[in-house]
Amino acid sequence: MTHERIHDGPQARPVVFFFGQYSFFFYSDGYILMDIHILTAADINAALPMVDAIALMKAAFSQFSAGDAEVPLRSRILVEKQQGATLFMPAFLKKTEDLAVKIVSVFPQNSRVNLDTIHAAVIVLDPQTGQPQALLEGSSLTAIRTGAASGAATDLLARKDAATVAIFGSGAQARTQLEAVCTVRPIKHVFVFSLDEPGAQAFCEEMSQVPNVPNKLEIAPSPIDAIRNADIICAATTSSTPIFPGDLVNPGTHVNAIGSFTPEMQEIDSALLLKARIVVDSREAVLAESGDLIIPIQQGLLDENDIYAELGEIIAGTCPGRTSEDQITVFKSVGLAVQDAIASSRVLERALRSKIGMQVKL
Asked: Which residue in 136, 74, 173 sits closest to 342, CA to CA?
């Protein structure tokens, strides 16, 4: 519970003080109470449709690459016993004045206790005063904004006629990856590969009901079967080793790689990167955090200069995107706090207009 101390003197009688549009509540313990808006996963899903989220991600990446955002590298606390990590991600976007911090935990062993791998919370702050304004359920926001980032990358980098998608993984991230790709391209065929077979079946049944997603999804018996005819590949797993053979990826394919977020995780193999145009969300972040790039660089297979561009640079038009139909493109993302800041701020604005969520006093 957070308070602002008014005084340390004797106990005061309860008083409400009004100043313009603001009300200050004085209680006998001498503290001012804050109004905090609480938004659940259902509230967030209602306030942030994917098409809007994709547009927001383009705005966030554009500001980031132009230097119009304050985004320190996220802090990480490892919980080795559980093979988990908790990350702290603050950001401020200067043009749109979005200020927020996210706390996200990624615990891959949570499936053993029937819990999701990712849990998160986002706190939205008033950019004028720094006062906390809202607390959002962060896992749903993370899934939407991560999918939307791949949607933005797919919109800019995938072939216009891309119609077949391979999805690796069957969790919350895989769901929004597919939804986002189907928002920006007329997808006709979807192949799903997941080590969790019941999860893959549930994924297919659920996603076939989502608008823009084909009404029939196929479970691929192997990674090779999944990518055989794919125009777009989305990798959304917690694997520490490459999940499909990169040398078998077809010319003209676009790949969204969002799973690897530590130096030890290599979801995408080096063979793919060696023949691809590599686009990232942040050069600094991927070179510090993603084994997809760190490992082949350490092996001498890649160089930092092999990163072609940040997505924000392509959005701004300072770098071209795809330049040929046969070109393989890879979007490598570790996730940036600017995504959470802009998404959570817009969710709060819409929630307040639509009277969604609940207000509490702290």
From this structure: 136
Which tokens is 150 given? 């791949």
What's residue 153's pLDDT?
98
Tens digit of each residue's pLDDT (9 = 90 or more) over 150-164: 999 999 999 999 999
pTM: 0.87
Nearest 5°: CA angle at 105, between 258 and 73? 65
Comparing CA positions, the residue from 322, 247, 253, 312 lying closest to residue 67 is 312
Query: Among candidates 41, 36, 62, which has minimal Cα distance to 126?
Result: 36
Which strand (E) or helix (H) includes residue 313? helix 311-316
Q: Which of these, 304, 301, 248, 247, lies nearest to 280 by C-alpha position?
A: 304
* pLDDT classification of 5: cutoffs 50, 70, 90: very low
Q: Judge whether 308 and 319 are in contact, CB under 8 Å.
A: yes
The whole-angstrom separation of Cα 356 and Cα 21 is 21
Specify whether the CB–CB gap between 60 and 345 falls below 8 A: no
pLDDT in tens, 105-150: 989 899 889 888 889 999 999 999 999 999 999 999 999 999 999 9
Enter the tokens of residue 200: 């893959």
